[in-house]
Amino acid sequence: MRAAKAYLRSPAAVIGTVILLAVLVMGVGADWFYPGDPLGLAGRPLQWPGQNPRFLLGTDSSGRDIAAQIVHGARISLLIGFVATSIAVVIGIAIGSVAGFYGGATDTALMRVTEAFQTLPNFILLLVLVAVFGSTIETVTIAIGIVSWPPVARLTRAEFLSLRTRDFVQACRVQGLSDAHLILREVLPNALPPVIVYASVVMAVAILLESALAFLELSDPNVPSWGNLIGLGRNVLRTEWYVSAIPGVAILLTILGVSLVGQGLNDALNPRLARAR
Amino acid sequence: MKVLTLALRRLAASLPTLLLIIAGMFLLLQLAPGDTVDALMAQMGGGDPALAAELRRFYGLDVGVAAQLGRYLMRLVTLDLGFSAIYGKPVATVILERLPPTILLMASALSFAFFFGLVLGVIAARRVNRWPDTLISTLGLVFYATPSFWFGLMAIVVFSVYLQWFPPGGFSDITQTLTGVAAVLDIARHLVLPTLTLGLIFLAIYLRIMRASMLEVLSLDFVRTARAKGLSETRVVARHVLRNAMLPMVTLIGLQAGTMLGGSVVVESVFALPGLGRLAYESVVQRDLNTLLGIVFVSAILVIVINFLVDILYARLDPRIAAGS
Known about the structure:
Chain B: It is a multi-pass membrane protein. The complex is a heterodimer. Chain A is mostly helical. Chain A has 13 helices and no strands. The longest helix of chain A is centred in the first third of the chain and has 37 residues, at 66-102. Chain B folds into 2 domains: 1-86 and 286-306, no CATH class; 100-275, MetI-like (MetI-like fold), CATH 1.10.3720.10. Chain B has a two-stranded antiparallel sheet with strand order 1-2. Chain B has helices at 2-30, 36-44, 49-58, 65-77, 91-126, 131-145, 148-162, 180-218, 221-228, 233-245, 247-255, 257-270, 276-285, 289-317, 319-324; strands at residues 83-84, 89-90.
């Protein structure tokens, strides 16, 4: 309760929540705002925003409604961000908690793998995964999750390392509780808050990664993704720059919202840190 | 010398990691639909199975996966990365040609982000919670949220199309042959926008870290001592705080070397720079898997080398590391 109050007292967190809620409403209500296929032909191509009252944000070079693509794109971005983040967090927690809890050879082996993933630039690994498994929306989302877990694993491991020798864990050990119980019921709940805060960073990066991939035309071309639209607008950049500009603002605001919420959570969950700042 | 030994030990420890990466990527690429020969045959407009078998023998694709991996690793020791069927050259040659623009771009983006991140972070920390701090922190948040490729495109619209200050892409002016200083200036002019584009997100990260670590160091006892000695505030910051506050930023350089290399894939594509990142993109599109594997190898080495340099730099900044070991 105190945390919730502290969260709402921070103006940054409130602004972030409002932005994120707006994007969420756009994504959830996309079919209601703009029923029909957002990638279908809507009118004359390359009409500037405001030129035709029917198209609030104008049309792209294929005559598709940009506003409809933005609203439907919100759903895609949030979905990819959320699912990819969940995948990254689950893998990261699994590897980090086992490595941190058991230590020794298990820890060394798992950290070697984590290091290997961190040494390889994640966007290049993403390119390799897309080259191998193709670029449907499902494979792209899973691939983004696979390249994003190492920092989560490191964070979880660090928390486990400091928690596993505490008295309450030792007490449970003496009671003869299983390792699985110790990891999942005793240590993990205490290790979770910083991981949840970090998940906001993972989500921001996941959305950026997908949009960059879509911009390079390596993501799914059959979904109304913001990155796709920026990539298409590139061909008419010199004259009709608004085609690329509008979806970029949408990405910027979404990432801003996610980061502000993350920062607010961080300050609310670590009150000691917040006061120092 | 202790510093060097320590850094070299870290370097040796990264060799198994490198091996893990190469083996993992090699096996992963085996899952890709179609091999180099398929891509080559498609480019030639088809051919008979006998030719395909002949080509497979030439590229060493006629033996089992384990044997191929063994051969590849053996050849890697001599820095032979195989042959690129698409470019008709050894992969090592193709990559070496593309390496200089990427290294130049990364170095200039890093310098830009580090310098301005440092300056802005210091200003924000010294005016904490007043308007310069609020302004800088807000800018940092916005820069962090800006997709780099989009910023690049908008920079092209503003600075190349409307203002015509900088060229919209390319590495040098190909309509005229320049030499000496003129050639250097020409390349510099071409690199301004890509540097800003790639450096923006790192600038945001560095200034945030610098601000936080300045605030932390400013509250430590030795700073109070320095102030009590009667040193001016500027001198306290420049001589006592800065060096200590810089340490987290230096750590970040190593941690984010990979992210920066990944970012240059996108930036090089936006500005049509003939670098390693663009090569990675092209080899994905053209299914040139041999080259892709070579790029993975080279970029992993690049990240390891940057971390090696960061280790040395870190130890120079923080004498406790060399003394403690």
